[in-house]
Specification:
Elements (H helix, E strand, L loop, with lengths): L2 H29 L1 H24 L7 H18 L7 H22 L8 H28 L1
Length: 147
């Protein structure tokens, strides 16, 4: 073997290796594109959902749990409309809680919340919130089983 032929072999191996690595990297990034899209969409969807639930509580009392569950349901529904059938439940809940933590002071100033009229109304609201949470959990379980 001459030095020129040896160099040609090394260059050929390097080109083949780089092509294989680039192909694998492209396949990897394409498979994770949907995850990137969900993460990109989650923050604005969560902010809008939290704002909508806070605004809904201006005229009638809505407990914090009901607001959280409502915002979670809104985000999940909007992701489904956009074609994302399975999104990580924990990821959505964390995005909603993060949006709430970031916006709560401003939202309380802009949309002051109605107060419950009595302890009986508060108890009913809490019971309703628990039932809605159970419903949301059951719907999430049904969705998970369907996929």
């Amino acid at each position: 073997m001459t030095i020129t032929n040896f160099s040609d072999v090394i260059v050929s191996i390097a080109v083949a290796t780089i092509t294989a690595i680039a192909g694998y990297a492209l396949k990897y990034f394409q498979s994770h594109k949907q995850i990137t899209n969900v993460i990109t969409l989650l923050e604005p969807l969560a902010k809008d959902a939290v704002t909508a639930m806070q605004k809904a509580g201006v005229d009638k009392y809505i407990s914090g749990i009901m607001k959280k569950n409502g915002a979670y349901a809104i985000v999940q529904s909007e992701l489904a409309k956009l074609g994302f059938s399975t999104a990580d439940e924990t990821l959505i809940k964390n995005a909603v809680e993060h949006a709430y933590a970031m916006l709560i002071n401003e939202l309380n100033n802009v949309y002051p919340q109605a107060q419950p009229k009595s302890e009986d109304e508060q108890a009913k609201a809490d019971e309703l919130a628990k039932a809605q949470q159970a419903l949301a959990d059951a719907q999430a379980k049904v969705s998970a089983l369907q996929n």
